[in-house]
Amino acid sequence: MRQFNQYLHHRLRWWETVLVIVGVLVLGGLGDLGYDWVSAAILDGRVRAAMPTVCAGIRAQRRQVEAALEAYQARFGFYPPDHVVRRQPLTVDPVRNPLVYELAGVLYNPTNKTFELEHLEPADAKYVLDFFQCTGFKNCGQRPQEIRRLLALSPLPVRQLHDDPDVFVLAYQVPWEGLAPEVVEQFQVSPWRYVASGPTNNPGRYDLWLEVRTRRQSVIVGNWKAVD
Q1: Residues 99, 140, 151, 221: what is their CA dihedral angle, to the nearest 10 degrees?
Q2: Facing residues of 168 across strands?
Q3: pLDDT tens across 95-146, in order?
Q4: Are 165 and 123 in contact (CB under 8 A)?
Q5: CA angle 121, 63, 55 (to 5 degrees)
Q6: How far is residue 33 from each of residues 17, 22, 39, 124, measured CA to CA in Å?
Q7: DSSP state of 120
Q8: In this structure, what are the phi and psi dihedrals at residue 192, rounded to the nearest 5 degrees?
Q9: 33-47 residue pLDDT tens
Q10: DSSP strand pairing (188-189 vs 167-170)
């Protein structure tokens, strides 16, 4: 015991002091890392628990988009065109699709040669058509009464893919109510993907889907059984 007391009261050599300081720093760092790990694990759990709610909201909005697609088909006799990159072999770009223009209706200004989607900034008509590799829009007119807004969603959910001139695609109108901001920040939701030319999952109709990503999960929500 006497030797132990002497050890406790003796003056530390310089290298012993260094070891003590390093030990304290290491233990403190491990504590911070442990706290960060636990916090991240808790957040991951909250995000995973929120995923079914987010997907349920997506399915509800998908049904509204599908209703608009069926209304379009009833009015024009076919589903809205998709973005065909080439015919031989058939290649479709599901991301850069003109769906929002056809379902919301687009105004054409023959003087300025621009398209206007609702109250969004007008864009050069030729650029928009070249962007989607199409020759025009069916649900289009020079006066508001000449077009038909088939999509019930309001405000119009869009994602801007190009700036000046502005080009848009149909996005997901995310209902984040009830979710904490730190949980919402973990979700990345793509715009709606759309294929009507030779759809692989719904022959004769169309494939409609989007992707939801978090740090730990990647989920597809679409209009066929495997991802419904």
Answers
A1: 0
A2: 160
A3: 999 999 999 999 999 999 999 999 899 999 999 999 999 999 999 999 999 9
A4: yes
A5: 90
A6: 24, 16, 10, 53
A7: S
A8: -70, 130
A9: 554 656 778 888 999
A10: unpaired
| Helix ranges (DSSP H) in the chain | 2-9, 14-76, 99-104, 125-132, 181-184
- Joined together, the tokens standing for residue 215 give 């740090």
105 touches 140 (CB < 8 A): yes
Using CA atoms, how far apart are residues 219 and 217, in angstroms rounded to an integer? 6
CA angle 80, 84, 85 (to 5 degrees): 160
* Side-chain half-sphere CA neighbours of 46 within 13 A: 16
d(CA 210, CA 200): 16
Rounded Cα distance, 48 and 218, in Å: 11
What pTM does this model have? 0.82
C-alpha of 38 from chain center: 28
What's the distance, CA 67 to chain centroid?
A: 21
Contact (Cβ atoms closer than 8 angstroms) between residue 132 and residue 125: no
Cα 132 to Cα 50: distance, rounded to the nearest angstrom: 35
Q: Quick one: DSSP state of residue 10? A: S
